Amino acid sequence: MSVMSEPAAVLVGLLGRSAAGDAEAFARFYDLTVSRVYGLVLRVVLDAAQAEEVTQETYLDAWRQAGRFEPARGGALAWLLAIAHRRAVDRVRSVGAATRRDSRYAVEDRPYDVTAEQAERSVEREQVMRALDELTPAQREAIALAYFGGHTHTEVARILDLPVGTAKTRIRDGLARLREAMGGQA
Amino acid sequence: MSDVPHDLAAVYALDALDAAEREVFDGHLAECSDCRAEVEAIRESLVGLAPAAIPPPALREAVLAAVAADPKRPAVAPLSRHSGAEIRSRSERRRRRRFLAGLAAAAVVAGVVLTWRPWSPSTPPTAPTPNAVTQVLAAPDAQRYPGPTSGPVTASVVRSPSEGRAVLVPDRLPEPGAGKTYQMWYVPPQGNPVSAGLLAGTAPTLLEGSGQDAAAVALSVEPTGGSPQPTTTPVLVIPLA
To answer: Which residue of B10, B45, B50 is in closest CB contact with A39?
Structure first.
């Protein structure tokens, strides 16, 4: 979709310069993206100190891997958030299920808070809200448990008391709808 | 789980596979472009779900300090063929193709006529001069020209008009292969490229000559000792504009 095309192009440019060792470009890249990275990581790890650590790891990864980013395969923010999310999930899992906060947290807390910053991206926000409305509550729940709760699909099935195949199907169908509603990248 | 179903792509994109499943699916991804495309598309649609939160201001300093102190540049792979994960060698082949295709465009941007045919003989390569490298990099008027970042070889050029010299700063530099070396060339707006010496390992290297009028710096793989004229298509062209 064209909603983010302009900032997206800026991010791609900054990432390219970062790959060439331009630390100033990387600082700008950080400034333009950190609220999303930190926000996502915090939502998953639920702890400010750990969120800072994971955010730092994420940017060090991004700095080292900038040269491997392929604009043809997707946006820079999607690339960065994928790094951040995987690290956040790995952190949560290494901490262990025992110390994890209530797994329902991610479900009950709305997964799309509107902060002051995001209000500026109102076009994108509206699109996301509309897209989420397209999902069934069951799909939203399964996706939130996995994406924000950091649970594996097997755990999602256990938490929701569903057969593994059903949980997987909910996630897959929900993401397909989300993708379609977000403008269908296919 | 030896037979990986394609329908795990969505679960994978959510990072909702366990470690063992993830590893298996990583292997599958290397071979399945459909799944790669699906994962990318899902990640794109997930961007909107990421909430925003303002981190403590000190985090910025910490991150940038860590980056500045990080001597490690992206891992490199041999130019010819990658021995590691298939996904990497595939993507590198793809990049390389795109890169070669983009060469002509780069030349146009730089206003360079790239005729890799008759070359002027050049001076034999000499050892790099570390002090001169530092002088150029530290010069107040030093200017950095980043090269294209999509190819297997990436580097930038730092040039100082006051010093009258330029330095090539390698970023990703795969092994050129046995019996081969990287050679630098100044590419004038018109006429033949002129050798600017051999690249000394992966360290920043001073280019021979001032290259005052050069429109670009190019890098090619040559037999050890270098060539009086390039014998291969350049792996990198960095416009000096």
So the answer is: B50
